[in-house]
Amino acid sequence: MCSNVLSEQQGPPEAKATAPPRLLLDAGCLAHSHLLRCPCRPITSPVAAIRATYGSGMDWAVATCSILLPAASAHPSTTVSLAVLEPFASTGRVANWGEDHQARANVDTMADWLTAPLQLHSSRAFECDPLTTEQCDYYKQHWHFWYIADYAFALPTVAFFMCVIGTFIIGHVVSQVLGYRSFRGPSIWQKLVAMLRYLSYRAFHVRALRWNSAPLGILLLGLVGTIFFFCMDLVPQPYYWPNEMLYGGSPPLATRSGWMALACMPFVFATASKTNWITLLTGVSHERLQVFHRWISYAFFILALLHTFPFIVYHVRWHDMEAHFASSLIFYWTGIVALVFQAWLTFASHSIIRNFGYEFFKITHLFAVVVFIVTFFWHCDYTLTSWDYFIATAAVYVPCYCYPWLRTCFEYGVRQKAQISVEENGFIRITIPAKFDWSPGQHCFLRFTSFGLLHAISAHPFTICSSCSIPPNGQSELVFYIRHQGGFTARLYQFAVEHPGALVSVLVDGPYGGINVQKYHDSDHLLVIAGGSGAGWCLPFIERFVRCNQIPADEEHGQAAPTNDKEALPVKVRAHRSACGPVSLRVILATQDVNSRTWFLQTVSELLSKYAATNSSSGVHVQVYLTGEAAEIADPSNQIPQDSTSSKESTSSAEKTTIPDERKKVAVSGKEFGGRPELPLIVQEEAAKVADAGQSLGVFVCGPITMQNDVGNAVAHENLNIFKGAKTGGVYLHSEHFSWA
């Protein structure tokens, strides 16, 4: 609702104290009635313009406009053209005219919810009169014209985001089409792939701040985005209209910031959902989109501030800020409420808040989103094409939000039962029958309906620590190993201790994320690294590798000796292993818990027993590192020989750790060490092996952010060497976070 009443006398009220200014209304503003958003300007014949616009029936215009005269209320000497307000006076909505001609308009200060009649888009009609030709040409320039601001600022912002997404789509398609040839092709292609991987893996650690950066490529992309927003928003001039104040009450900086902020909204929601279109088109899983979700949200909020503050400056300059707030106009209050809740959404999503209480974070986040969308929608009030962006947001987000619920209810069922128990090392084990397939590293969101309404509506993400069965081998089971912390997992642990093996109702949503299966199969050798509770994350890799590398029964006897060289195997066996992919698997686990070490080795032995066959485990090498105080507890004598890739080698275990099993005894080929693993050195050793043979290495890591940073930088260094031509082959990295990044 537009109350930008302008004066024939130029400049702010304090600029000239001679003749009182004569306030006039622009009927063109009343036509859309957007308070301080349409560029109101003086007109020579307001009554004629109003009557030409609305005819003799003025009730609708009055009912939909709250007319304020800020200059009049601030300066008693100000007079108002009675001819302008005369048609409104007949309706009884303008009153309290004093003897000193001070105007106080009280035209329905409690504004309507939305401007009537309701439309999808507001009008773009504009007439230059009474502006001069030069003034009109200046105002109608591309960067100045309010009536095309959505085209000039919002659409280029959308185009920028779409170009970034399109780049990732092209990269994903090329990667899928070329597959293994990406590191076996021409040298120039190897170098290009190596450089892209270097940018994707190289990160920085600021020890003083205990801060680990995003990968270099993501930082460069963020820099490009910063430059784009800076050039689109802060480079164009002016920030405010010149002193003659002929061009309206919406400062140019506020206008372009508002439209660019609005254009960010669909992409904030597009990167927020677990199931989303961007993941479908680019192959980037939802948890890896979280960094973009946060960064776009930051841009959204900063632009919202740049939209808000120019209006404050403008009204402070004209001394009418109090009058606008006192009027209780919906436009202002909806903007304020939307900004407050947007600030909460932006900053309360920090990991500190999430770790403080995940359920609290989820509930407040959802509530804030609803309030923000409603008030923001109300605030925009179909200005130009503003509502198109709400429609786009709904089209992007609503199907993605509904699909997981529909899949859970109709495909997985609402009567799923989970068996809960506690392992020897204190991990919570959750087992759920499943009728779908998944790949290593994927996770599911679980809602436990037996623990109250709060946990029934709050989904918790857990990594799957099992592999799906191959028909007709039997029923697949989702197995989760969870280290309890606080909040819900502590309650779940207590329940499992008190009711071991109990069945509880659960809703399953997933699977999501996981490794790139094609990259897994394209790798000749695998290096899997995990820390702490990431031990369970390793198990699907071992099971998949062992199961895939089993030699068929008719090929077992008298044909092949254990070997990691595909070319040395018989033809049929070589074909089988080539179809499976990797020929060797090295597993590195670092843990501070002795019980976790014992549990892990025992679980691996049981897993190998499940697939016991000739040569089935010949390519698996497991190394467990006890770190911190656990290393001293395991070997109090501290007389442990040194190893090339570790600080201490435990003498308490042999080269083969054999765990008895009722079905069959299977030895785990590996070693146990004390102290932290030298991860960069281990990566370097494995990369050197594949480089000598012209093969490829797949590195998969799950652990603390510092572990991921060390491994990522080591892999980035190897790819930099490939780019420089010092090495051949390929080194691929997949990193898995303990929680949302």
What does this structure look like?
Helix 26 (679-693) runs parallel beside helix 27 (705-724). By secondary structure, this protein is an alpha/beta fold. The model is unreliable at 1-111, 553-564 and 636-667 (pLDDT under 50). A hairpin with a 4-residue loop joins strand 4 (205-206) and strand 5 (211-212). It is built from 27 helices and 19 strands. Helix content is 46%, strand content 14%. The chain folds into four domains: 6-110, no CATH class; 148-185 and 250-327 and 382-408, no CATH class; 413-513, Elongation Factor Tu (Ef-tu), domain 3 (Beta Barrel), CATH 2.40.30; 517-551 and 571-736, 3-Layer(aba) Sandwich (Rossmann fold). The longest helix has 30 residues, at 149-178. Strands 12, 13, 14, 15, 16, 17, 18 and 19 form an eight-stranded mixed sheet that branches. Strands 9-8-11-6-7-10 form a six-stranded antiparallel sheet. The two termini are 43 Å apart. The chain is globular, with a radius of gyration of 33 Å.
